[in-house]
Each structure stands twice: as structure tokens, then as C-alpha cells.
Design a protein that fits this description.
Length: 304
């Protein structure tokens, strides 16, 4: 059976639109699954264990370290941990929704200022030490229920850490905005999960060797510029609307980009298949190796 040119063009357009619809649908499902997975992780991680003693307004099990809690008002309080003898700190933060800000502090190991309109979002801060390792956990009182965050609601966590310590960070943000300024920190491992929203992650001059970021939906901006003293292995995944990564232009960089992708902007990079490399790859002592996967609308790799 012969087909006219008009029929052929029509068929081609139909097939293209059908393919675009399928890809768009797959991207939406991947984003939804990412959000569900991260939300489930939050709910499971925040379930209160009756066998674990929660430290509030009294001394921690370690006699040399105390947690100081001050209630400013019904919906605001401050918490802090004095300087610790431990040099290696494992910090786990599980934030339900709203705005969270991390920044460098001064003398104390940690200072936190917390504002919340829902008592279930009140944070619980715990700390323990073993040998030279301290473990910090910050989690809201109850994250098992669905998060119903209205426009009139407030949940703001402002936390500063002592930059002189060495850290592992494990951060889960259910939804909202994260401003995580850890420039100059000594970080061994950094893991971030965001259900939905926007996150600005400043890791300039950290020389972090291991980085994992998972974003369900929204935008992530990551700064990895500055001085490097080791290789980097970074994995970025999820159903991200946009991922923007700032990289040093005088360090070897290799980025493998896979998945259902939209627009990729990588000025100053050479492209071969799904690999993007800069001119310094193989010419410097250290290499920044990135793997980006998922249903990502726009990927921007920026050399600075």
C-alpha cells in the first residue's frame, strides 16, 4: 500500500509526539517515585525508638558534653552543644519541610535556632561520643504523618557547626528550601536527599572525596570550586528539574550524564557520547569524576 508524502509526515509527527509524551510521562513517574522514596526514608528514619534516650534540656550520657536548650517562645527555641573532644563528627539531619540553613559557627560544636508553627516539627537534638567520634542527630518530633505545609506555616532551622572538626554529613530534606553553606569545612562524606524544592550547596574548598545527591523534584545548585587535595567521586540522581554544578576550570573534570535528559549546557567541555571532559583531564594530579543520572530537565556544568 502506497503512502503519500502528507501521510508520511503526519505519521512521523504522530510518532514524535507519542515518543515525547512517553518520555514526559516517564520523567514525571521517575520524579514521583523519587519523592515517594525520600519521603518514606524520612518517615522511617524519624520514628522514635523507645529504647533510645532523648536528651532535652539535660546532660547527655557523656558527662563531658551537655546539650543546652532554651525555649524562646511557644514556637521558637535554641539548642547547642558545647565544644567536644571528638575530632570526627557524624551529623545526621532530617528536616520535614520549610527552610533549613547550615553555616559555619565559632566556638561551640553546634548552635541551632528553630522556629516552627507545628509542634510536631519541633526538633530533637541528640549527641553521643565514642573514642574520637561524635554523633549528632537532629530530627523533628514526629515525621510519621503526612506533611501538610500551608502558606501560613513556618518551619525554619538555622544551624551552625564548628568548621574545625572533620565531618560526615547525612542530610534529608522533605520539601522546601535548603541553603547549605559549608565552604572550607573538612568533609569526608556528604550525602543529601531532597524530596522537592530548591537547594544551594556550597562545598567550595572542602575537597570532599565522596558526594551523593538525590533530588526528587526541583533545582539543585552545587559549588565544587576551590582547592582540591584529592580525587572526587560524585553521584547526582533523581527527577530534577535543573541541576547546576560549578567546577574549577584548572582541575581535570569528567562528567558522565545518563537518563531522560533535556537541555545540557557545558561550555568549555568536550563531548564524546555521554561523557563531558574539560581540557585539564589527565593533566592534573587530581580528577573530579561526576555521574549524573535520572530524568533531569536541564543540566549545567560551569567552569570557574
Amino acid at each position: 500500500m502506497s503512502i503519500s508524502i502528507f501521510q508520511s509526515v503526519t505519521l512521523m509527527r504522530y510518532n514524535r509526539l507519542n515518543l515525547e509524551f512517553k518520555l514526559t510521562t516517564m520523567k514525571k513517574w521517575l520524579k514521583l517515585l523519587s519523592v515517594i522514596a525520600i519521603t518514606a526514608t524520612i518517615a522511617q528514619s524519624c520514628v522514635h525508638n523507645p529504647n533510645v534516650e532523648v536528651s532535652t534540656n539535660n546532660e547527655n550520657k557523656n558527662d563531658s558534653v551537655s546539650i543546652d536548650t532554651s525555649t524562646v517562645s511557644v514556637n521558637m527555641e535554641t539548642q547547642s552543644i558545647e565544644s567536644s573532644k571528638s575530632n570526627y563528627i557524624i551529623a545526621n539531619i532530617i528536616f520535614p519541610a520549610g527552610k533549613i540553613q547550615l553555616m559555619p559557627g565559632k566556638t561551640n560544636l553546634i548552635n541551632g535556632k528553630f522556629k516552627f508553627t507545628n509542634k510536631d516539627w519541633k526538633p530533637v537534638l541528640t549527641y553521643s561520643e565514642s573514642n574520637d567520634t561524635g554523633k549528632i542527630s537532629i530530627c523533628s518530633l514526629n515525621s510519621k504523618e503526612n506533611i501538610n505545609f500551608e502558606n501560613s506555616d513556618t518551619c525554619h532551622w538555622f544551624i551552625d557547626f564548628n568548621p574545625e572538626k572533620k565531618y560526615d554529613f547525612e542530610i534529608i530534606i522533605g520539601a522546601g528550601k535548603g541553603d547549605l553553606n559549608l565552604e572550607g569545612f573538612k568533609i569526608q562524606n556528604f550525602n543529601l536527599e531532597l524530596g522537592a524544592g530548591k537547594v544551594n550547596l556550597n562545598l567550595k574548598n572542602t575537597s570532599v572525596p565522596n558526594l551523593n545527591i538525590t533530588v526528587g523534584a526541583g533545582k539543585a545548585i552545587v559549588y565544587l570550586t576551590g582547592i582540591w587535595n584529592n580525587n572526587l567521586k560524585a553521584k547526582i540522581a533523581g527527577g530534577v528539574d535543573e541541576i547546576e554544578v560549578h567546577l574549577p576550570k584548572e582541575i581535570g573534570v569528567k562528567a558522565e550524564v545518563n537518563g531522560l535528559l533535556g537541555n545540557i549546557v557545558a561550555e568549555g567541555f568536550s563531548k564524546k557520547h555521554n561523557f563531558y571532559t574539560n581540557n585539564y583531564l589527565g593533566k592534573t594530579k587530581y580528577t573530579l569524576d561526576l555521574e549524573i543520572d535520572g530524568a533531569i530537565g536541564k543540566v549545567k556544568l560551569i567552569l570557574e
